[in-house]
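hiii, so i know i said id send this last week but things got crazy w the move. better late than never?? heres the sequnce for the chain we talked about at the cafe, plus the structure i predicted for it. fair warning i was half asleep when i ran it
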Amino acid sequence: MDQTYRRPDTSADRFDRDAEMSWTMPGPLYRDPGVFDEERRAIFYRSWLYLAPASEVAEPGAYVTGELVGQHVCAVRGRDGELRAFFNVCQHRGHILLQGKGRIGNLVTCPYHAWAYDEQGALRAAPRCEGVKGFDKADFTLPAVRVEEFCGFVFVNFDPKARSMAETYPGLKETVHRLHPADTPLLPACEIVFDIAGNWKNVADNFLECYHCAPAHKAFVDLVDMQTYTVETHDNWSLQVGDCRTCNTAYNFPEGCERVFSAIFIWPASALLLFPGAPGIFTFTFLPTAPEMTHQVLSYYAPALPLGETEQAILTYFSDVLGPEDVALVENVQKGLHSLGYHQGRFIIDKSRDHTNEHAVHHFHSLVMASLGLG
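okay and structure toks below
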């Protein structure tokens, strides 16, 4: 007798736009290489992706680079004050042009064959090109990438027809400014990186709900008063907010500080975080590097350096406690998503939409499924 286990006949159509009736995305969407390839095309190459704080490209000639889901980009502040972004590859043989961040001189020169470009991406010099029949420098301008400064940060979009960030995320800018009305430039202060053996959607699912907070994050639920914790969904973004206790087992912060924790998710794979006691703001990104690998980065941007005692305590709490707790959860889920005994789960969502509800995860799944033509 064949003893091979066969899962129930379930499929993606058990996902429902009605959150209270819906099942989750099927497990194969979290591990299939073909799905990952389609997500790059349908989601990441058509969406706004976080690149850097605007303070890093505030001065003429300043540039910053990044690798976003396999695409190398750079943003440069022109001497005319305009911020421009380009694919960061030489148009001769594809060598990467700029590394890290810094200042460009009069030209950006490729270290491979010395092709040189100006700050607007135009090719200005290519050694020995004068003797090449039909060679036209205008054919080798660096391809532009859409770029915007939004809430003090730089985002890029590989889709030239994409809607602006204001159109894509209505109400987001106003919410960020209400929660963090900073009027001074923020300086890069610290970066905490986890390379997670889990699909990027798995990381997002975990980030977007606090149903797991009580059993899995004891210090976090001591920091945040869960009776005040709310979760809202909006067009292409969502918001989690809760009041906090100054004395708790996560980290203590002085009386008189802002007491609110906020997590603002920005589709598809970034967020802004505010921890009580920190005058700056955190960025949180979780970009896929493979079907089952995610590069997660928490960066803190402060109004002044060196950091204060509370800021240091928050970073230690994330690097030593909260971050590892979530990484362990995500990596264990990723293993389970390979089980013959699992295909889809059921969202815990009722009419209350309180902090234990998974409606922000359903909102995220809706965006994924729609992008892939499945929802």
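btw Confidence is low (pLDDT under 50) at residues 5-11. thought thatd interest u
miss u guys!!
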